[in-house]
Amino acid sequence: MRQAGRYMKEYRAIREKNAFLKICKTKELVAEITVVARRKLGVDAAILFADILLIVEALGLPLDFPKADGPLIAKPVRTAADVDALLEADPEETLGYVFDAVRLTRAELEKDVPLIGFAGAPFTIAAYLIEGGSSKDFEKTKRFLYEDPGRWEKLLAKISRVTARYLTGQVHAGVQAVQLFDSWAGCLEPSEYREHVMPHTAAVFAAIPAGVPTIHFGTGTAPFLESFAAAGSTVVGVDHRIRLDEAWQRIGYDRPIQGNMDPLVLCSSLENVKNHAAMILDQARGRAGHIFNLGHGILPDTPVENAAALVETVHETSRGIQEFLG
Ligand code: CP3
Fold it and tell me: How many whole angstroms separate alpha carbon 303 and alpha carbon 305?
């Protein structure tokens, strides 16, 4: 995962002149950032430059990214009435600029490079809506669930419906695969995940047009990986808190897997980067269906040359393995 962002000077130059949301809403800038980041790193697929929180405005709430504080939702969801007041507008009207950006990016990207669209998973979006921004312990989110499970189900179902239409719109605009980010699911107790979160994520995956591969990203999901996989994506993502081989055995070798290098490794020596890559590829054992990726987003002070060197190492090593396997 690149978050094409702050570690890349090309992005920083654009960002100096434009607010983050402005960039997301300007298709020429989205296309440029997406295409340049892909080329510079040499990765096999491009991920659209956007943010999982864009849907917050589509739900009728104000969204801002004040400097250095992370995202801010000034009118968070705290009551049943707040849930009822959320809009369920046609994404074509509220998020049409993302579809425009997909069309332009698809046109400017190399033909043989897949473009990945994405959205936040219902739980992570709900957590942002309730907390009003980032959080360490997700206390308000959990209280919101415990105090009134009916209200919780209503909120997640609403987010799921809008998300399914949003991702379907991205598919129609031209993305080749879609990814759902459940970045904060790892704060949940396993039965909470299974009963109150997984069914909503499953509803989103079930609504994606047939034949479009789906990727389920999460962090800290090792304690309930089987439930996480049961949400039904094509590819199951895992972070660096679990060994790749153990994760793959648990989800079954018939499922493609995505992961799982600790992004912090990229901030260390090139030798350490190569050792970690080799360790993960060794665990994959040359099986088909491994998408090499970081366990979480790339960190802002990552040296770009380390990221590019990682891509090269993974390509070289996996070519070698394929040749060896014939
Ligand atoms: O990967 C890519 O290159 C595509 C672009 C992308 C962004 N956000 C751009 C971005 C993607 C895939 C995301 C997903 C996203 N956004 C997630 C899920 C992945 C994850 O990291 O768990 C989450 C949780 C968000 C929400 C979000 N957006 C946060 C918490 C922040 C602030 C982060 C920080 O440390 O400042 C953002 C802003 C954001 N999204 C930036 C970028 C490049 C930085 C904005 C800036 O330039 O100031």
Answer: 5
